Structure formats: structure tokens, C-alpha cells
Amino acid sequence: MAFRAITNESGKRVLLPAKASVVFTKGDAILNTSGYADIQTSGSNIDAYYVADETVTASATDGATLVACIPVDGVRFEVDTSNTPTAAQQGVDVDFSAAGTVDTSAVTDQVFHVEKMILPLSEKKAIGFFVRGAPNS
Q1: Cα separation of 37 and 18, whole Å?
Q2: For residue 108, what pLDDT band results from cuts at 50, 70 and 90?
């Protein structure tokens, strides 16, 4: 389960200092916690500015580990959904379900815009982009 960049990500990789003891999985949406990279969680209404580009476990000290990330601006992503989406959920801004998934039935936080679903719907995948300045963030 992850956000997978499908356009415009080439050459944009950056290294960010990680929050202590966080387990990053490639494709996790990243937020800033007191200046350190951390993973998004269900119910988070904080804008995501990066997606992890590697799997790494941070050391026990804030900032001691660097995590490779892709900035999300201008990048389209394929993402796993936590539920089986419907055609009516295309064109909707949805919520995080976890660090690497969205919930296409939840529209409270509106952090990811679903442009279209990948067929068959039972694959539980969508294509879209991160929303900047989410209304409820």
C-alpha cells in the first residue's frame, strides 16, 4: 500500500531529517512534525508535501536519520484505497486512511484529489494528486 509517483517525479529526490524511531515505508505520505519528517495517519488533516522514496527505520534521535523523499508538487500518484471505490468518487477530494492509502468514502479532511479510478474497481486503486491548503487543515 503506497503512493506511487507516475508523472514528473524525475530528479526531485530530497533528503529530510526524520523524527526519532519512525518506520518509513516507500510510498508513505510525509508530514512535518516539529521540523522532522513523520508519516501521515488516518484522520490527519495536515498537507503532505513529500512521499517517502525509500524504506528506512529512523534512529532513536530526532534528525539523526535522513529519509529520501519526493516532493509532491506537480506529481500525479497511483494510490491504494482502503475500500472498493465507486465511479461517483472520481473528482472528489478524500482523506488519508493510513500513510500509504486513501479512503475514497471519507471527505472530511480533503487531502488527496481523486482524478480517476483504475479498473476493475476491485483492484482498489486510484490516480490523483495531493491537495495543497486542504480546507480542513
Answers
A1: 5
A2: confident
Number of other CB atoms surrounding residue 17 within 10 Å: 14
CA–CA separation, 104 vs 95, rounded Å? 7
Q: Helix, strand, or coil here: 87?
A: helix
* DSSP assignment string, 90-122: TTEEEEEEETTEEETT--SS--EEEEEEPSSGG
The answer to whether 46 and 22 have CB atoms below 8 angstroms apart is no
DSSP conformation class of 31 = E
Contacts (Cβ under 8 Å, ≥6 apart) of 63: 17, 18, 35, 36
CA 98 from centroid of its chain's CA atoms: 8
Q: Return d(Cα 62, Cα 21) in angstroms, integer.
A: 8
Distance linking the first and last C-alpha atoms of the chain: 24
pLDDT tens, position by position, 32-83: 989 999 998 877 778 889 999 999 999 999 999 999 999 999 999 999 999 9
CA 80 to chain centre: 10
